[in-house]
């Protein structure tokens, strides 16, 4: 009993001593659950509370005073807390800090002064904080630094000065922060940064300069000393221009953000030195294009964001060297088309954002669609939203759901890239074709022009053209006629209006009499001064004759044409013909065409619609190149008739008869099969009835059953175990009289004497 009382006394004494000591060091209105922690956050304090005893205050390591109404820090507030490691003064109303307020805090490692009203830091205020590693002074009213407030903070690793009013960074402001790794300067008013402001920050890894007032980045020495920098954020400024070699020495930079500026120009070598950058954001700027070679220094880029710019042009080779690119964002720009092979070298690209652009869904988008379809099929690409804006008939549709036939070229050619003959659209316009087109446009406006190359066709004056037009207008208008089996009423005038109204160049519809001229006369009708045919435009204009349509049915039609004797003047180039056809008045121009050999001058069009008006044109392909100008001179129209009612009835009768014959055949086969099954079942039942053993094993009547060819019946399973009986010698031989003896001993002996012949 005495022992228990002694222990109780010791425990009570210890508890009393603990509570006495805790009470002794714990300021009023604070909590001291741990001897080394004083927590006074959100207590409504207007001044820093003082500890009652000096000896116990030295043991305090953490002092929390956040969320109070403290206005000033005097020289005596923390004099007793010489061993503090963390001091939190955030979210107060501190305006003034005495220069000696932290004089005794030589062990302090973390100081939090953020979200106060501090406007300046007096010289020497932080001088004694030799071991300070983290300093928060964010969201204050600091506008300028007097002297060098951070000059003695050699151990500082993280510094937050964001959310202040700093306008200038002088050369020596950070000169003592040789170990600084993270610097926050965002949300200030920075207009000028001295080229040597970051000169001593050789270990800096994170720098945030976002939401300031910077207008340009041209000084190549500004970031030249930041050799350890991995993240650079300069978003939300007013930068308009980025000069060459600005980031050249940032060898370890992995992320850079230039978002939400006013950048309209990047110099050709502005990104040089960023070989290790994996994420580059330059969205919400005013860029108008991405030229070739600009992004080549980004050898390891994985995430590239050009969203919300004014980009209307991307060079086909802009992304050629970005083999590690995973994410590309080009949404909300002014793109109308993209080269089909623009992503050919980006083998690991899986996320592309192209929505919000002015996409024109024509033949220039075929290769892009093909690439998207191929990447989707292999599971390498997330959904890409390319929503057509033009032409109006495709407005609102996504490229994935537009067929290749719908990606027709509205203007008759694709100017953006050289496409092969099997793609929709012509090749790039050569200088000769361009000259030819310009001369024809000059004719259209009534000026003196040259038909073809100078010296080959000669000049055609305005008077001669007027005479030709007068000749055409003086001829009688063709009346309603027929082409093949289809009727065509006043089709020449209607077709001329169609061809004139739906194309960029205006051509007079050739008179019907001209198509009916013989081959020799038609050749004379053309300009005889042409000597050499060098391109498809010349061949179309001078050598294709007498386009006509014959053998028109409800679904087919045969197109015939002829050529002049000067076909051989095509200098050894491969000559083909292309026959285009489309329904008259259809929104798309010639979504269907057929190629034929140069020796063939007729082709049969298939899969036509009945009772429809069609237009068909013939053009040449010389050396794999088409003419940029649509072949309006060699077009004709035809109407497909309705399907014959008799043929429909006959087809229906034939179909019904075929179905009936098939049904009878199935019934016959089913009956034969059912009879065969029933016959087999009857036989199996007969064979399963027990026959007299004498008859089964009589030597005079050898046993030959169907069972012998397959497997032993149920009666012999105990003897033969499924063994096949292929020969008479395989049968069991028994004396016939033994089966009439009722002696069990004899039967047992018989069993013992069983003999198998192998």
From TrEMBL:
A single GO cellular-component term from the record reads: extracellular space
- What are the boundaries of the signal sequence? 1-24
User: Domain Fibronectin type-III, which positions?
Assistant: 543-643
Superkingdom of origin: Eukaryota
- Per its UniProt record, what InterPro entries does this chain match? Cys-rich_flank_reg_C (IPR000483), FN3_dom (IPR003961), FN3_sf (IPR036116), Ig-like_fold (IPR013783), Leu-rich_rpt (IPR001611), Leu-rich_rpt_typical-subtyp (IPR003591), LRR_dom_sf (IPR032675), LRRNT (IPR000372)
Similarity-based family: Belongs to the small leucine-rich proteoglycan (SLRP) family. SLRP class I subfamily.
Biological role: May affect the rate of fibrils formation.
Spell out the protein name for this chain.
Decorin
